[in-house]
Amino acid sequence: MGKKKRIGILTAGxxxxxxxxxIRGIGKTAIVEHGMEVIGFVSGYTGxxxxxxxxxxxxxxxxxxxxxxxxxxxxxxxPFKISQNDGNINxxxxxxxxxxxxxxxxxxxxxGNGTMKTAAKIxxxxxxxxxxxxxxxxxxxxxxxxxxFDSAVAIATEAIDRLxxxxxxxxxxxxxxxxxxxxxxxxLYAGMAGGGDIILLPEIEYNVRSVCKKIEERFENKKxxxxxxxxxxxxxPKDYSPGNYIAECITEYTGxxxxxxxxxxxxxxxxxxxxxxxxxxxYGSYAAxxxxxxxxxxxxxxxxxxxxxxxxxxxxxxxxxxxxDDPLVLKCRNMGVSFGDEY
Length: 343
Ligand code: F6P
Hints:
Layout: E1 6-11, H1 19-33, E2 37-41, H2 45-49, E3 53-55, H3 91-101, E4 106-111, H4 113-124, E5 129-133, H5 149-170, E6 173-178, H6 185-193, E7 198-200, H7 208-220, E8 226-231, H8 242-254, E9 258-262, H9 274-292, E10 298-303, E11 306-311, H10 312-315, H11 327-334
Parallel strand pairs: 1-2, 1-4, 4-5, 5-10, 6-8, 6-9, 7-8
Antiparallel strand pairs: 2-3, 10-11
Helix pairs in contact: 1-9, 5-6, 7-8
The structure holds 6-O-phosphono-beta-D-fructofuranose.
């Protein structure tokens, strides 16, 4: 029997439901199936830089499948970004030293685009790394879906369902601003699932005239209210939040009363959906498997419903964005949903 493999896990970037399911999937596969040792770095890359970690024994992995957030904590630390308040700390050097001092065979980095970019750079230091794509934004290139996305869509959809009743009671245009950074996936999926009448995405250039015309048409057709789903990444004038800007335009140009709900961090909170629990567990388990096989420098991914891997070097600097001809966009349009670009 060779030396027991020792792997280090870290969770970085914005948190989301499913992170603990992924940690559990890695740990149970690595420890139980492959007899490995697992440690978890505290607060993402910060823990790796300053050697702050916990031993992840099986008992630490019990009862966390349904837990939101991350038992390890997270941060948005960028070890390869030089900042003056770092003094003469050489973070990449510290990472390399700590990796070897701790006798690690591989580092698993769970995160979004920024995390994968840093993971690729750590691989270039000559260290073994595997990435797991996580974010509510679903904008990581190379995979069809990230875990966290389904939970955010479920939360946003439930919120939209609730907005229908109050919009109807007051005959208002209710604007809901959802997260997604520069991608419109949450707005598109929750907009379709929640029956949005207008869905504004960063990827489809909208104009206020189209939005207002759609609102007026609906009221002319005796549609008592409208639901407007706005992705936070759409272009709006400086000093405006997307939701507030759209709501103000609607009221100013159509006379229809409007109200704004900014869903914010609710989309990142609470227990993961069943789908996210399964996806996170599969990603975590698969990451442990490829490490057991001695494969590194890869991000696990889901493509056409099949688990696969993509080289971390290929992921860097790319985004998975909504295409104008995405099947959901085309279907929504055919059913009368406006993307604010008709005029
Ligand atoms: O990347 C996830 C995300 O929630 C984005 O949708 C959002 O724009 C961003 O994080 C918020 O960042 P922070 O948690 O640093 O406020």
